[in-house]
Design goal:
Length: 470
Amino acid sequence: SSGSEDNDVVVIGGGPGGYVAAIKAAQLGLKTTCIEKRGALGGTCLNVGCIPSKALLHSSHMYHEAKHSFQSHGVKFSNLEVDLPAMLGQKDRAVSNLTRGIEGLFKKNKVNYVKGTGKLLSPSQVSVDTLEGGNTLVNGKHIIIATGSDVKSLPGIPIDEKKIVSSTGALCLSEVPKKLIVIGAGYIGLEMGSVWGRLGAEVTVVEFAPDIVPTMDGEVRKQFQRTLEKQKMKFMLKTKVTGVDASDSGVRLTVEPAAGGEQTMLEADVVLVSAGRVPYTTGLGLEDLGVKMDKIGRIEVNEKFETNVKGVYAIGDVVPGPMLAHKAEEDGVACVEFIAGKEGHVDYDTVPGVVYTHPEVASVGKTEEQVKALGVDYRVGKFPYMANSRAKAIDDADGLVKILAEKETDKILGVHIMGANAGELIHEAVIALQYGASSEDIARTCHAHPTLSEAVKEAAMATYDKPIHM
Ligand code: FAD
């Protein structure tokens, strides 16, 4: 059945924002339809984002470890090789298993799934051009726009997904490029650069800004950049790409200093354009309905995710806020809780961010620069992975934990971790921040030995007092 009967909720877009909203709505007893044009659920995240990139990061890390670290652990073998089609195949299987898993969750929760492209005809009616080739109308009392984001293209740099690729093309290169140039030193560029660098590509990252990952704590960022440089990633910061020329033999880029100056020529087999993402609202009919968007095309919503048009809501990458899958999910749940007449809440101050390179970099709360700008008196507690017994035992000791706490109250303001498993360790800090904990609260909590998490405890000790192992 498509949605000719009335739905309580119609969700346009089946990404982490949309599919989670749809399942939650159904769980709250609302009759729900989700419309997705991709032919598979999970959105950018599952199909061409978080999941396939983490699959390739893991596979390439295993190869890199085998090549560079196994010997020192006494694991020897000959004939180490990369079988790229097999590596890409494992990634594709992971993706298709997970997308089918969401279809299963839709069935289990009785979410009606319509495959096709939706367009709003009114605040309560969506026209869908179905993938099968027809058109159907889906009605609903509440319409949630969860159409996500798309790759930001750069003027004069046409993406062909072969020589000049977006992150999507970078997830399925048919061979390891000898030279890869990454335009943009955000987390996506650094993650994909790491994948191909580990597999043998010479990677150069060109960035207009003076720093890599601008949202990161400055001190952690500096260490992170040094770590990536040790892994042979090259950086050209404050550098502007002024031209590109792709031919069968490769790509030539002309670059110049961001402030202006002499041009130089760079050559590469593949160029990855990862200069950010833009909200995706093409063809939704929002202009005709008068849905308000800001200057950069994000849909404006209030704290209940309502747009200026009654009955129309928006969540995830298509609204302001960090463009992250877990933030989209939180939006989705809170949005349908409001629709169901309950309270919903998202705390945007405690959304963690993780860069899944090796080591990982994870953070929550404020950076030291932000704390300074607020004019709050603060203390810093740091603990290096080098002094953590588990990190030493496994010979993976590049990194640190840094905690910022308010001087007067010891309340934690921000936590920044670079190191193995940082993306898992950060959640202790997320909970601490969510509960308004002090650094002493963490320090006086028993942590299992020997774990990397002890580095968080010791950094907490260092924040208001002294660590033991330093
Ligand atoms: P999307 O996931 O973009 O989903 C929107 C869906 O709507 C799409 O499937 C689209 O086909 C569909 N759609 C659009 N228009 C219509 C229409 N008119 N009708 C029907 N369907 C429509 N985030 C993290 O948190 N962690 C990570 O590790 C991470 N890694 C990433 C790696 C890469 C390479 C990329 C590109 C992104 C990554 N992200 C990561 C970001 C993450 O993918 C997004 O923040 C997240 O997918 C946003 O979810 P969403 O539901 O708002 O939108």
